Amino acid sequence: MDVATKLVELRQKHETLQQNYGVLQEENGRLKEVVEQFMQEILLLRDKRFGRKADVLPTGQQDLDLDLVFDEAEVTAAAEQQEEITVTAYTRKKRGRKPLPADLTRVEHIIDIDEADKQCGCGEYRQVIGEEVSEKLAIIPEFVYVQKTIRLMYACRNCEGSGDEEKPAVIVAPAPPAIIPKGIATPSLLATVFTNKFMDHLPYYRQEKRFKRLDISISRQNMSNWQVKSYQVIKPLIRLLESELHRGSVMQMDETTLQVLGEPNRLDTQKSYMWLARGGPPEHPVVRYRYFPTRSAEPAKELLKDFSGYLQTDGYETYVTVLKDRKDIIHVGCWAHARRYYTDAAKTMKKTGSAHEAVKWIARLYKHEKKLRAELDHGELTLDEFSAARKAAVEPDLDKFKAWLETKKKHLLPSSLTGKAVNYTLNQWDKLIRYLENPYLTPDNNAAERSIKPFVVSRKNWLFSGSPDGAESSCGLFSLIETAKENNLNPQVYLYHIFENAPCISSPEDWEALLPWNVSLPKFLDAEYIRKGVSPHLPQ
Length: 540
Fold this sequence. Notes:
Blueprint: H1 3-50, H2 66-70, H3 72-81, E1 153-155, E2 170-172, H4 187-198, H5 204-213, H6 220-233, H7 235-245, E3 250-259, E4 271-279, E5 286-292, H8 297-304, E6 309-312, H9 317-323, E7 329-332, H10 335-346, H11 354-377, H12 383-411, H13 417-427, H14 429-432, H15 446-462, H16 468-486, H17 491-501, H18 508-512, H19 527-533
Parallel strand pairs: 3-6, 6-7
Antiparallel strand pairs: 1-2, 3-4, 4-5
Helix pairs in contact: 4-17, 5-6, 6-16, 8-9, 10-11, 10-13, 11-12, 12-13, 16-17
């Protein structure tokens, strides 16, 4: 083989090696990206399993100055011109425990000195010149009593009823109406049992044990039956709540999983869903829970069929599908969900980066919101002034942030956590900024998430619903309790009021009178309140 041929072969091999090297470089780069993505996911899963649940930046990564990110030149110039610094006075919090509520019953225990000490050495008796008072909290375990109803019977001993054949020989006083006839459940018992379960997250099997300690036999099955039967009676009130839900201009929605046993044509291991809608007029908000077997578009359509206005949700695509043909509903996004993508990305980083910058910037939105919302609540701004001030404060920052996002998108890997966060924010941008259009809208959907959280905590305790009827009745009672809380009512007192009055209702107006904003109730369900409405002979 001559030299020329050998050179040609070597050049061909060299070119082949160069091509292979380029391919291997590309493959190596791709594999590095995959490894980095997997490492981020592993770190994020580890944080979700063992770390804090709040959407906050890791310790040591919270000192990023956002002004230096966006307006470095302006901030530097302002710092050079600044000569005086005004330091706000610090107000020290008063130490010591908080006083006990003034409306709690006080039982006085007066301690006197010995009789021998009352006489002074001069022969005169010492006089009381003052007193030292301290208060401690005492608790008497639940006061349980039997409400014994005695219905008097009348008969004529003379003719034994033959003198008035149109009437029965024995006349018995009518039984008082009860929400569950022919049972031992009273309104106070039902209110306590349901508050324990749906507000204090105490399953029926644990309540069964509590009753057993009092030597009272109430099975979990009894309590479950009471729940379903009570819900059947108060259904008209639940329907009124749902109609009020649609009267407001803003609604928020969320959903979470629920396991329901005994569903037709479904396995007990399949997931069902609890849907939540929060809306109603601003002066009396309504929270409505609904149980549906699926997470498809049908539940959302059902909840939104009579509503028009602004709907605020997370980025779940089903809402987009539902609202595609609903021109009367404007879809609003949630900044809290957008921020969560960045906090998740930040938790996988050892140093501050783009995710931290985005989190710090989103905090600016909330800073403006908190300041202006406080001024609105204190009457310093009208709704129109609040909307105008919020737009003026937020829109310039939004423009800068969007430009920053579009720049970052060009340099970030789409598969990285930060890249996914940037893409999510840009895809949701039009929805995210719509909260500026209505003063009743906030940057996020957190109010709905706070309302659904009690159900999530309860679900960890009782795990599943035993039947579709049980799931539906749970929704009704959760709706009443959370709506009562939103309207500053004690849920236990409110439930007692409903169960006491529901059996006597004869018109739609009577049901309207039971809505949370139409009642005036005490803070606590105590013996005095029950005595007034039920038994004037209740023991002191």
